[in-house]
Amino acid sequence: MKANEVIDNLKRRFPNEPEYIQAVEEVLTTIEDVYNQHPEFEKSNLIERLCIPDRIFSFRVTWQDDKGAVHTNMGYRVQHNNAIGPYKGGIRFHSSVTPSILKFLAFEQTFKNSLTTLPMGGGKGGSDFNPKGKSNAEIMRFCQAFVMELWRYIGPETDVPAGDIGVGGREVSFMYGMYKKLARENTGTFTGKSLEMGGSLIRPEATGYGNVYFLLEMLKTKNIDIKGKVVAVSGSGNVAQYTVEKLIELGAKVVTMSDSNGYIYDPDGIDREKLDYIMELKNLYRGRIKEYAEKYGCKYVEGARPWGEKCDIAMPSATQNELNGEDAKTLLANGCIAVSEGANMPSTPEAINTFLAAKILYAPGKAANAGGVSTSGLEMTQNAMHLGWSAEEVDQKLKGIMKSIHEQCVKYGKQEDGTINYVKGANVAGFMKVAKAMMAQGIL
Ligand code: GLU
Questions:
Q1: Residue 409: its pLDDT value, please?
Q2: In the structure, what pLDDT confidence band is assigned to residue 134 with cuts at 50, 70 and 90?
Q3: Which three-class secondary structure state does DSSP give residue 68?
Q4: From residue 184, how far is each of 98, 147, 152 by CA, in Å?
Q5: First CA to last CA across the chain, in angstroms?
Q6: How many structural domains comprise the chain?
Q7: What is the pLDDT of residues 275-289, one digit of tens each?
Q8: What confidence category does residue 239 fall into, taking pLDDT thresholds of 50, 70 and 90?
C-alpha cells in the first residue's frame, strides 16, 4: 500500500469531503509501514475496505416548531465497520454536520473503539439540525422525528448510538423513548440514557474524566505531578465540564474555557463554585460563556480560542480543527508540555506535526477521549445483564481501560530515543485489532 495513492484515489472518489480525507490521511501515513509488513492485507485490499464505510443511511427529518412552522433537516447514520462488534458511536446535532464530518467521525470511532478493549465497531450519526435556542418541546419533537426514520437500522446487537455535540442525556432519552415505542424492545439500543431508564453512572463524566486519567498516565512517564499545573481547556459542554471537574479535584489550575462565541481567561483559576455556575449556565439556562466573565470580572475574548494564553497543559475539548499550526507554535513558545484531546480531531495536521516534532506529550483524541465510548460499552454490558454497577465500580473500570489504552500506545508508539509517539501508537494498535478481525471474517 502506498498511502499517497490510496488517499489520492479517495479524494477522486469523494471530492468535497475534506474532513474525511484529513482523518484518513492521518491514520494511513502512520500505519503504512506496519500494513506493508503483512502482504495478506494488501492481497485482500483491506485498506479500501477499512477506509470506506460499510454503508450510510441518509434521510429527511420533518418537524414542527412551537409556532406551527414546518422544517426539514437532513439525518444520517454512517455504519463504518463492525468487524469487532456492533456499530457504536454518537449522534451529533449541529448546523455544520455533513456526510464528510460524519464519515471522519465514524472512521475515527472505529479505531478508538478498537483501543477500548471492548467489542465495539465504529459508527456515527447526526443531523444539520441546530439545537441552539430551541425549546424543550421542539428538541423532543425533533428527536422523535429523527428516530422515526433511524429506528429500523439500529438495535442492541447491530448499531448502538449515543450522544455527541448537541446530544446529551436529554436528547438520548427522547430518542430512546421513541425507539422503544417503535421497536417494541427495551434492551438498551442507545447509551448515555438517563439513569432511571438504564443509563450508567459515570457515563456523563466519562469522557472528561477519562481524558484526565490518560493525561496522568502520560505525565507519569516523565514523573510530572499534575498538582499546580496551569491548564487551558476549550469548550464548555459535557467533555470540558468534567475535564475541569477532575482537574480541580487533582489540584490543577484551569484558566480558560470557551464556547463558539469566544473564551474566558480566569487567572485565579476556575474553582468548584465557579464550575457549578458554568454547569448551571450551560446545562440549565443554555447561556453563553461570556456571562461567566461578567459575573466573575475576568477577561473575555470574543471570536477567539484560548491557545494564546500561557499554560503548562492544553486540553482541546470543543470540536474538530479548533487548534491550528500557529496555535501549536504559540503553545510551545509559552512552555506547554502536554496536549490531551477531549474533542475528536481538534488539532489540524500542521498542529499535530508541530507537537510531534517538539516531542511533547501529545495524545490524539482517539486515545485520550475514548473514556466516553468505553463507558458506553460498560452501559451496554449492564443493560445486557439487566443490572447496574456502582459509580465506584464504573470509575475503576474506566481507569483500567484508560491505562490499557496508554499501554497500547506505548507498545506501538515507543521511539528509538525513548519518547512515545501517541499518534502512531494509537493508530497502529487500533488498526491491528480491526485488521485481524477483518482478515478472520473473510472478504466482505
Ligand atoms: N460521541 C462520543 C465519542 O466521540 C461517544 C460515543 C459513544 O458513547 O458511543 O466517542
A1: 98
A2: very high
A3: coil
A4: 31, 14, 12
A5: 19
A6: 2
A7: 999 999 999 999 999
A8: very high
Q: Is 162 in the pocket of ligand 1 (CB under 6 A)?
A: yes
Pocket test for ligand 1, best of 376, 378, 394 (most atoms within 8 A of CB): 376
The proportion of the chain whose per-residue pLDDT surpasses 70, expressed as a percent, equals: 100
124 is catalytic: yes
The tens digit of pLDDT for each residue in 382-409 reads 999 999 999 999 999 999 999 999 999 9
The pLDDT assigned to 435 comes to: 98
Q: Are residues 164 and 124 part of one domain?
A: yes
pLDDT of residue 240: 98
- For helices 371-385 and 99-115, the axis angle rounded to 10 degrees is 70
Give the domain extent around 336: 206-368
Is position 320 within any domain?
Answer: yes
Q: Are residues 303 and 156 in the same domain?
A: no
Both 218 and 335 in a single domain?
A: yes
Using pLDDT thresholds of 50, 70 and 90, give the confidence band for residue 439: very high
Distance 202 CA to ligand 1 centre (A): 14
The rounded mean pLDDT for the chain is 98
Q: Does residue 174 sit in the same domain as residue 227? A: no
Count the helices and strands in the chain (H runs, E runs).
17, 12
Residues comprising the chain, all counted: 444
What residue's CA is closest to ligand 1, atom 8? 373
Pocket residue to mutate for ligand 1, from 80, 91, 164, most atoms within 8 A of Cβ: 164
Which listed residue (88, 112, 124, 424) is catalytic? 124
Alpha helices of 99-160 — where are they, by DSSP H?
A: 99-115, 136-150
Q: Which atom of ligand 1 is nearest to the CA of 191?
A: 8
Question: What is the domain-level CATH number for residue 73?
Answer: 3.40.50.10860
Q: Please give the number of the atom of ligand 1 that sits closest to the Cα of 105.
A: 4
> What CATH code is carried by the domain that includes residue 313?
3.40.50.720
Which stretches of 30-179 are assigned E, i.e. beta strand?
Answer: 55-64, 70-81, 87-93, 122-127, 159-162
Q: Whose CA is nearest to atom 10 of ligand 1?
A: 373
Cell of 28: 494511513
Of the pLDDT bands very low, low, confident and very high (cuts 50, 70, 90), residue 36 is very high
CA dist 430 and 369 (Å) reads 14
How much is the average pLDDT of 330-336?
98
Say what the pLDDT of residue 60 is: 98
